[in-house]
Amino acid sequence: MEVIFNDKIHLTDFKSVYFIGIGGIGMSALARYFNSSGYVVGGYDKTPSPLTDELIREGCFIHFEDLSHEIPSQFIDQQTTLVILTPAIPNNHGELNYLIQQGFTILKRSEVLGLITNSLKGLCVAGTHGKTTTSTLLAHILNESTWKCNAFLGGISTNFNSNLLVNKQSEYAVIEADEFDRSFLRLSPFASIITSADPDHLDIYGTESEFQDGFQMYAEKINENGILILKEGLPFRSLASIQSYAVNSETADYRGANLRVENGSFLMDVNFNTSSWSDVELGVPGIHNAENALACIALLDMLGLDELQIRSGLKTFLGVKRRFEYIVRNEKYIYIDDYAHHPKEIKALVESVRLMYPAKKITGIFQPHLFSRTRDFMDDFAHELGKLDEIILLPIYPARELPISGITSEVLLSKIKNPNKYLFTPDDALGYVKANESEVLLTIGAGDIDRIVPIVQSILTNSL
To answer: Beta partners for 229?
Structure first.
């Protein structure tokens, strides 16, 4: 049954908001927004998680079984209840089909973001990789500045321990613009960063050409009086003013150079127009994080924020949960957890770790995410994972998909040209970590690999 989306909606018409898939990182930010704004908030999610635990503590009504027509009484009035849907919910979901049959107003997350932010200047961050860290960094710099901001993020900021910022005095809203399901085409950015456009979600787009066309359509939606900050080499056109950025480039408009570690600090120099900023200190290390920082510098400089406030925000940024997140860091062990789930993201992660720890053995535990993505990038995954000193594969995390014949972690393992490779269950991987010392250990992936993170942390901490 098809959901019919109403494009003539006023959020003030509703008193309660019901989420189908409330525990997702983007959905939970919206749930927090409506809860903090005085709405009654609740909904369904498949499994409990730390995020759903926090939402419940904040006053949301959440359940973990498909109730079909037995919707909680706070949400049974279709005139006063707005339903927000995540595309990860299957079409045969009982609650969803009941809500459709009863004529509830049902919107996608991106449509609701558009409604919330249509009176604000949307500063959107799009890209196959880097959009969560870049949007969170952008929000942090603005939040620390005199400008402030609202923010709807796809990750939990370590600085403010949330994926939401609300400031009714600020004219800016930082939004992570998600290309999955073409959601970003429902936004109307005043300005945007596009960090990358490597093909992904081909189960949605079909071809690489269609994927690129989606980003071009997004670039055309940016306000003609606004700004588009493009990673150098991306071909997209826009009526907005376009500025490029890149690290180690002679031709980009905003150029980062001389990346280095001095006295434990990660530094780079920045050059643009006739300006030169030396010794810009970044709160988080890594080549990819330097590029993310450069994109934020470019956008905020173009908007007119002063250098001192930009530098201060960059220096005090602590990162995003599950994005190059240090879990253990001492003289014996380095343990980093990262959300990387695309070959280009794994490449950036491994190169950054090598830059930081060139003499140490690096072991990675990787959980492939989606059968379709593993199929589409099988050889690329094998190539990048093979650069680790030691690789442990877990079974593929299916998310919304059914298995695809011939696409398994066993096949991926066979393609990795590195003798130090293993295929384990999560429990066996934990046993291996306990029995073998790792100088630098990485857990990598976007599925439920994060559930073993506290156990790995405990193993390494207790072994000291």
So the answer is: 193, 243
Six-digit token pair at 269? 């120099």
Distances from the Cα of 262 to the Cα of 15, 279, 280, 281, 286, angstroms: 54, 10, 12, 10, 14
Residues 177 and 291 occupy one common structural domain: yes
Question: 99 and 247: one domain?
Answer: no
Q: Report yes or no: 270 and 294 within 8 Å, Cβ to Cβ.
A: yes
Percent of the chain with pLDDT over 90: 72
The residue count of the chain comes to 464
* Nearest partner of 297 among 255, 235, 262, judged by Cα: 255
Which pair of structure tokens corresponds to residue 209? 């050409």
Whole-number Å distance between alpha carbons of 414 and 433: 22
Q: Per residue in 27-51, pLDDT tens?
A: 999 999 999 999 999 999 988 988 8
The predicted structure's pLDDT at residue 2: 44
| pLDDT tens sequence across 440-459 | 999 999 889 998 999 999 99
Contacts of 37 (CB under 8 A, 6+ apart): none
Calpha distance 127→104 (Å, rounded)? 33
Based on the fold, state whether residues 306 and 333 are members of the same structural domain: no
pLDDT at residue 88 in the model: 77
Query: What is the rounded CA–CA span in Å between residue 196 and residue 131?
Result: 9
- Given a cut of 50, whether residue 89 has pLDDT beyond it is yes
* pTM confidence score: 0.78
CA distance 2 to 134: 34
- Which residue segment(s) compose the domain that 342 sits in? 325-462
